[in-house]
Amino acid sequence: MGRHLVLVGGGHAHMLTLANVHRFVQKGHRITLIGPSEHHYYSGMGPGMLGRTYAPEEIRFQTRRLVEKQGGTFILDTVTSIDPDKKSLKLKSGAEQSYDLVSFNVGSYVPRELIQTDQAEAPDIYQVKPIENLLAVQKRLLELGAEGEFRVGIVGGGPSTAEISGNIHRLLRNSGRCRPQIQLFAGLKFMARFPRQVRRKVIDSLEKRGIEVLEEGYVRAVEPGRLILESGYHYQQDLILLAPGIRPSPIFRASSLPTGPDGGLRVNDFLHSPDYPDMFGGGDCIYFQKRPLDKVGVYAVRQNPVLLHNLLARCEDEDLIPFDPGGDYLLIFNLGDGTGVFRKKDIVFNGRLAFFIKDRLDRRFMKKFQAFE
Ligand SMILES: Cc1cc2nc3c(=O)[nH]c(=O)nc-3n(C[C@H](O)[C@H](O)[C@H](O)COP(=O)(O)OP(=O)(O)OC[C@H]3O[C@@H](n4cnc5c(N)ncnc54)[C@H](O)[C@@H]3O)c2cc1C
Q1: Which neighbouring-strand residues pair with 74?
Q2: Which residue among 207, 241, 275 closes a domain?
Q3: Which of 241, 267, 295 is a domain's end point?
Q4: Is the CB of 304 under 6 A from ligand 1?
């Protein structure tokens, strides 16, 4: 008998499953995708979109179109909680959606706890996720640049802050408008989990362009126009971007499901919940219980074939295969000036070649999955 598979979130780990909806349909199963947007943006190219190296349509997948074209159903909504015993999902709109089998790829979010304002919307304070936010940031930066001198503060000490700051510099330089003073508030040590030579190359590149990397302590609070450090020292800013680390989607904790210490859905080697074998997951929203994985798109992408296989196998009552996270992964940072920093194991280099390789790999990835549309 056909089963109903509900995919929640059309993120990086569901891409191969989305490209193969027709296989489920041909075997008599139903597929529904629930997501808050008709598109999914590829985060690896997000900073490049901010700096206008890429247009938005070059870095996004038309998830709705892809699913509907193959006979699946798309629901524009957001899942807020899960009842695993009733096999039912609650949606933001108030609707409920039942499932036989569910797979989550709902990613992670940037916490808003630092934002201190009574207003529902904090003007000129943006989170770097979802990646769509970077389009609003781009528009606002160009408006500010047309008005005159301004300041941008970026909260966070990871590589995404380096990529964002370099690409803000690029955007304003190429626009011919006023360039902002850009300050990175990186806690006590910028890119602390990277080797010295990677950090040095990134910092040198940013500082050459006048971008300040501050390692004076953590940010305690942000409010419109102002950013306050734990020391009490504060900085006036016209636009503030938040990238102080990410957390898995809160829906699993909110539903009292088994999670890891970070709140991610706990999954076993087969990428399903040990307690609920019809509940699968991939990407930033899971806690892989064998060993916690970094929150990088690389793992979400590596999970694609396993999720496709196991979802199809579960529908057909066949054997599942385990996920092997694999060894060290390649990282290349896009610094916004046509150069990058490349790192794989002990190999580290920077320059135009590094960005060339990243651009090639990212475009090839997009081309492969956009072809299914
Ligand atoms: C600026 C930036 C640059 C980055 N660059 C890189 C890089 O170069 N390489 C790399 O490996 N990693 C990079 N990362 C990390 C990367 O973003 C994440 O690891 C990756 O996005 C995880 O993919 P995902 O599919 O799990 O989540 P996401 O990409 O966040 O996708 C989740 C999807 O689920 C949907 N969704 C969310 N909540 C719900 C809900 N409740 N109900 C239904 N749908 C929902 C969202 O709309 C989205 O489509 C970067 C991150 C940032 C912020």
Answers
A1: 33
A2: 241
A3: 241
A4: no
pLDDT of amino acid 122: 81
Which residue has the least CA distance to atom 30 on ligand 1? 107
Q: Could you tell me the residue range of the domain that residue 18 belongs to? A: 4-110+247-328
351 residue type, one letter: G
Q: How many domains does the chain have?
A: 2
Q: Quote the ligand 1 centre to 2 CA distance (angstroms).
A: 31
Same domain, 94 and 135: no
Atom of ligand 1 nearest to the CA of 108: 30
Name the H helices within the chain.
Answer: 15-19, 21-26, 46-50, 63-69, 133-147, 159-175, 196-208, 251-254, 297-315, 352-370
Nearest CA to ligand 1 atom 37: 106
Q: Is the CB of 300 under 6 A from ligand 1?
A: yes
The per-residue pLDDT for range 202-240, each reduced to its tens digit, is 999 999 999 999 999 999 999 999 999 999 999 999 999
Q: Is 335 in the pocket of ligand 1 (CB under 6 A)?
A: no
Q: Tell me the three state secondary structure of residue 185.
A: strand
- pLDDT tens digit string along 155-210? 999 999 999 999 999 999 999 999 999 999 999 999 999 999 999 999 999 999 99
Cα first-last separation, the chain: 29
Q: What is the pTM of this model?
A: 0.94
248-291: per-residue pLDDT in tens?
Answer: 999 999 999 999 999 999 999 999 999 999 999 999 999 999 99
Ligand 1 atom nearest to 243, measured from its CA:
53
CB 30 within 8 A of CB 4: yes
**How far, in Å, from the CA of 9 to the mean position of ligand 1?**
10
